[in-house]
C-alpha cells in the first residue's frame, strides 16, 4: 500500500479537525515527504497525551500508539526529546476538553 506524503496527511488531518470545530495547530513542521508525525492532544486540564504512528512488524499495518501521557509539561518534554532525535518530525497539537483527536477515524491511520 502506498503511503501519503507527510505534508499531505497533515493537511488532510487539519482540515478534518477544523471541519469538526476542534482547534489544531502545527507546532513543528517536518519533512513534507517522509517526516514522521506526532499528535499531541491537550485536554485543557493540565494533562495531555502524545500519539505516534507505529507499524506492526508481522502485518505491516500502521496504527496510532501512545508515546507519552500525563502532565502536559511531561508530554511536552517527551516530544522535545523526540524532536532532538528527529528534526524532520511533524508535531501537531490538538486542543479539546472532550479528548477528541479523530485518529481512530477511517483514513487517518494510514
Could you walk me through the main structural features you see in this protein, from its secondary elements to its overall organization?
With 110 residues, the protein is of the alpha+beta class. The protein has one domain: hypothetical protein tt1805 (3-Layer(aba) Sandwich). The chain is built from 2 helices and 5 strands; from the N terminus they run H-E-E-E-E-H-E. The protein has helices spanning 6-19, 72-85, and strands spanning 24-28, 37-42, 47-55, 62-71, 90-95. It has a 5-stranded mixed sheet with strand order 1-5-2-3-4. The longest helix has 14 residues, at 6-19. The protein is globular and about 35 Å long. The model has no long low-confidence stretch (mean pLDDT 91).
Layout of secondary structure:
Layout: H1 6-19, E1 24-28, E2 37-42, E3 47-55, E4 62-71, H2 72-85, E5 90-95
Parallel strand pairs: 2-5
Antiparallel strand pairs: 1-5, 2-3, 3-4
Sequence stretches where pLDDT stays below 50 over 5 or more residues? none
Determine the fraction of residues in helical runs and give it as a percent range.
Answer: 25-40%
Mean pLDDT, nearest integer? 91
As for the CATH topology, it is hypothetical protein tt1805
In which order are the strands of the major sheet placed? 1-5-2-3-4
- By CATH, the architecture is named 3-Layer(aba) Sandwich
The outline comes out as: globular
Radius of gyration: 13 Å
Amino acid at each position: 500500500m502506498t503511503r501519503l506524503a507527510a505534508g499531505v496527511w497533515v493537511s488532510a488531518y487539519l482540515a478534518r479537525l477544523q471541519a469538526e470545530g476542534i482547534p489544531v495547530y502545527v507546532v513543528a513542521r517536518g519533512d513534507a515527504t517522509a517526516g514522521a508525525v506526532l499528535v499531541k492532544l491537550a485536554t485543557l486540564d493540565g494533562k495531555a497525551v502524545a500519539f505516534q504512528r507505529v507499524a506492526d512488524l508481522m502485518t505491516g499495518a500502521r496504527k496510532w500508539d501512545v508515546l507519552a501521557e500525563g502532565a502536559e509539561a511531561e508530554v511536552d518534554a517527551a516530544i522535545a526529546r523526540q524532536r532532538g532525535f528527529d528534526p524532520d518530525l511533524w508535531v501537531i497539537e490538538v486542543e479539546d476538553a472532550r479528548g477528541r483527536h479523530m485518529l481512530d477515524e477511517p483514513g487517518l491511520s494510514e
